[in-house]
């Protein structure tokens, strides 16, 4: 049986720790980020080693330099949810990623429509000053804490695994299709 309630959380702590988590990812400190900010039950369906390997592969293409920028427009929902002894709060943010290609003969502007088919029209721009493509994504996350001080983060995405990580009371609050 789950006990459901609403509680107050220190919103500044959530945002500060989320920024720290994203900074660790941007600096490719994957192990530290996962150890400090990922709920243990995530590793019930994917090992930490496999997750780290996947993260490294996505960011280590020698032909493309990937820059992950600090998240912006972080908006926490007004209400947090308490299930059993854990607080949950859903929030949204905007993430920009820059991609610089080593091969300067590639016409980056012509690649914009290709990226737009994958991440949506209007979410891809060419930064002439930096000579890179910038990808914008609006994402949802769930922060969870057993003590109200140390927060863990779970990306919201369409996956049956999400049901293994989050209680139904939290899942019901998400806009999953």
Radius of gyration: 18 Å
Number of helices: 6
CATH architecture annotation name: Roll
What is the typical, i.e. mean, pLDDT?
89
Number of strands: 8
Explain the overall architecture.
This protein has a single domain (4-171), classed as Nuclear Transport Factor 2, Chain: A. It contains 6 helices and 8 strands, in the order E-H-H-H-E-E-E-E-H-E-E-E-H-H. It has helices at residues 11-26, 30-37, 48-59, 108-119, 162-165, 168-171; strands at 4-5, 64-68, 72-76, 81-83, 86-101, 124-127, 132-145, 152-155. Strands 1, 2, 3, 4, 5, 6, 7 and 8 form an 8-stranded antiparallel β-sheet that branches. Helix 1 runs antiparallel to helix 2 (30-37). The chain is globular and about 55 Å long.
Name some characteristics of this structure.
alpha+beta; about 180 residues; 6 helices; Nuclear Transport Factor 2, Chain: A; about 30% helix; globular; eight-stranded antiparallel beta sheet; disordered N terminus
Short description:
The chain is an alpha+beta fold. Helix content is 32%, strand content 30%. The protein has one domain: Roll (Nuclear Transport Factor 2, Chain: A).
Task: Summarize the helices and strands and which ones pair or pack.
Layout: E1 4-5, H1 11-26, H2 30-37, H3 48-59, E2 64-68, E3 72-76, E4 81-83, E5 86-101, H4 108-119, E6 124-127, E7 132-145, E8 152-155, H5 162-165, H6 168-171
Antiparallel strand pairs: 1-4, 2-5, 3-5, 4-5, 5-7, 6-7, 7-8
Helix pairs in contact: 1-2
């Amino acid at each position: 049986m789950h006990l459901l309630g609403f509680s107050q959380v220190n919103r500044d702590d959530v945002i500060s720790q989320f920024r720290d988590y994203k900074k660790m990812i941007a600096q490719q400190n994957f192990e530290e980020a996962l150890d400090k900010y990922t709920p243990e039950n995530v590793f019930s369906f994917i090992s930490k080693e496999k997750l780290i390997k996947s993260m490294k592969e996505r960011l280590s293409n020698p032909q493309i330099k990937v820059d992950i920028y600090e998240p912006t427009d972080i908006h926490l929902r007004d209400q947090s949810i308490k299930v059993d002894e854990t607080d949950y709060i859903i929030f949204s943010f905007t993430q920009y990623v820059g991609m610089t290609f080593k091969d300067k003969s590639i016409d980056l502007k012509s690649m914009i429509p290709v990226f737009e088919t994958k991440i949506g029209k209007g979410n891809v721009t060419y930064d002439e000053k930096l000579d890179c493509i910038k990808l914008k994504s609006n994402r949802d996350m769930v922060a969870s804490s057993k003590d109200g001080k140390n927060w863990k983060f779970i990306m919201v995405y369409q996956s049956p695994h999400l049901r293994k990580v989050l209680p139904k009371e939290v899942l019901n609050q998400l806009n999953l299709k």
